[in-house]
Amino acid sequence: MPKVRHHPALLLFIGLCKLRFAHRDEIDLRNAVWTIPAERELIPGVKYYARGTKMRSPHLAPLSHQAIELLHEVRQHCRPGTKLVFPGDHNYRKPMSENTINKSLRVMGYDTQKDVCGHGFRTMAYSAQ
User: Fold this and answer.
1) Which of 22, 35, 40, 84 has the smallest C-beta neighbourhood within 10 Å, fewest atoms?
2) Element (H, E) at 33
3) Which residue from 95, 68, 97 is spatially nearest to 84, judged by alpha carbons?
4) Nearest residue to 25 via CA among 84, 103, 110, 75
């Protein structure tokens, strides 16, 4: 996949489990909104999947122009029939690894021990309110 200009966690400010487990049919690019359901069907053999799916009600996440651009780009590089927005490298039916986000930050030049880590993005957005 080509290098993207923006990191999805920075554009969406959503919990990493919700980001990793995002389904393509939840995202409405035309109306610029991601509807995260209150519950999702479990994926057998996927650790921590329930963390990203158990909410009391659906969550609406507005999508910026940059997020929409990134999601269009990601869709162009996904295998046809893939339900997940960010499928794993080894099995397109399973989500990307929990380590993928921090690894991508390190590739971008960030020190995930000192500068920033994927888990901190949501907290950063919450603190800015």
Assistant:
1) 35
2) strand 33-36
3) 95
4) 84
Residue 31 domain boundaries: 8-127
Query: How far is the CA of 24 from the CAs of 20, 27, 54, 105, in angstroms?
Result: 12, 6, 18, 23
Neighbouring residues of 65: CB distance < 8 A, sequence distance ≥ 6? 32
Q: Please give the structure tokens belonging to residue 2.
A: 């080509």
CATH value at residue 39: 1.10.443.10
Tens of pLDDT along 42-55? 788 887 666 655 66
3-state DSSP assignment of residue 54:
coil
Sign of CA dihedral 98, 100, 103, 109: negative
| pLDDT at residue 4 greater than cutoff 70 | no
pTM of this structure: 0.75
Kindly provide the b/e burial profile for residues 78-117, where b requires at least 16 CB atoms within 10 angstroms of the residue's own CB: beeeebbbbbeeeeeebbbeeebbbebbeeeebebeeebb
Which helix (H) or strand (E) element contains residue 28? strand 27-28
